[in-house]
Structure formats: structure tokens, C-alpha cells
TrEMBL record:
Database matches in PROSITE patterns: NLPC_P60
Domain of life: Bacteria
Keywords: Hydrolase, Protease, Signal, Thiol protease
Transmembrane segments: none
Record's protein name: NLP/P60 protein
Length: 188
């Protein structure tokens, strides 16, 4: 904790000194120019105008893009127990899992249930899916979305499975999920 305080203090002083020597946009120029330095320390600047920053020591936030962070964070929950209606942090239903991952890995607040998540953004073609997109399924035979997962690339997705009773990775190629897949969305 002392190291964290020291790092934040040093960064704040550096930003303040740079801003004082620079024009009115000194903080923004510092942040934009030295973004790789801030990234290497895993410092996230929330508001460049006030130079407020936060620090995360989670390994899942160290990877490149927000899509990578989502997948990395979701993988940390592999094997977690499936319970209908559960929203985490160690027990989930499908939509609770997706919502928990996006909130914690990307600070994106998704609707609570899969049918609402399915209409959160416009549908995209399965040919245009990227890792981090949401994939939706009709599993009950009632004509509505009833299951959701997070696309990982290479026809794989991670989800809290009621059938598997845990968070797991499944394939969209053939079988049950290929037959029940309906569409995907880009949640960003």
C-alpha cells in the first residue's frame, strides 16, 4: 500500500510540475505524450482536467485493449458455480456473469437480464464478431433470448452455463450452441 501511495504521489507531483511549466493544456499534453509510461504503471486517468488517477493491481487489467481485459478477467472466473439469479463475485447466472465481467473489467454497466442485454446495442453479423462481443441464444424454445456469453474469438465463448453448472468455455461450431445461437452485439 505504501508503494501505491508513493507512485500516485510521484505521478501527481510530476503532472503538477509539468502543467505549471506548460500551457493551459499541460496535463492533457502530459497524459497524451506519456500514455505508455502511465500504462506501464497501470495508472488509469479518470479525469485529465483534474489529474485524478486510480491504480489497479489486477493482472487482468494489464493487457492491451479493453476487449483483452474483458476476456482475461472473464477467464479468472472459470469454474465458478452457476446459480440462477446470482450476480457474483464467485457465483453467477449467465447474464449476471456477463454484467459482472463488463462492470469490473471495462466499467460498462449492462442491463441485468440476457433478453435486455440482447437489445442493449444493435445486432451484428456473426461474421463481424470480435472478442468481447456478446453472443445470444434461445435455449428454452419459447422464442426469446434466454442465454448470453462473451465471444473469445475462434468460435469460442465464455459463459455461466446452467447445463454445465459452472463458468466454462464452449464452441459455436456445431452442436447445441450452434443450433440455439441467434445473434451478437458489440457492447461498446
Amino acid at each position: 500500500m505504501k508503494k501505491l501511495s508513493l507512485i500516485i504521489c510521484i505521478l501527481t507531483l510530476t503532472v503538477a510540475l509539468y502543467a505549471k511549466r506548460s500551457d493551459n493544456n499541460g496535463v492533457n499534453n502530459f497524459i497524451n505524450r506519456d500514455e505508455s509510461f502511465a500504462s506501464s504503471l497501470d495508472i488509469k486517468v479518470k479525469d485529465p482536467n483534474t489529474a485524478k488517477a486510480s491504480y489497479s493491481s489486477s493482472d487482468s487489467t494489464r493487457s492491451g485493449t479493453v476487449r483483452d481485459r474483458i476476456i482475461d478477467f472473464a477467464k479468472t472466473k472459470l469454474g465458478a458455480t452457476y446459480v440462477w439469479g446470482a450476480t457474483g463475485p464467485n457465483v453467477f447466472d449467465c447474464s449476471g456473469f456477463v454484467r459482472f465481467v463488463f462492470q469490473n473489467a471495462a466499467d460498462i454497466s449492462l442491463p441485468r437480464v440476457s433478453s435486455d442485454q440482447a437489445t442493449y446495442k444493435p445486432r451484428i453479423s456473426s461474421m463481424n464478431m470480435k472478442k468481447g462481443d456478446l453472443v445470444f441464444f434461445e435455449t428454452t424454445g419459447r422464442g426469446r433470448i434466454s442465454h448470453v456469453g462473451i465471444y473469445m474469438g475462434d468460435s469460442q465463448f465464455i459463459h455461466a452455463s446452467s447445463g454445465g453448472k459452472r463458468v466454462m468455455v464452449s464452441s459455436l461450431d456445431g452442436g447445441y450452441y450452434n443450433k440455439t445461437f441467434r445473434w451478437a452485439i458489440n457492447p461498446f
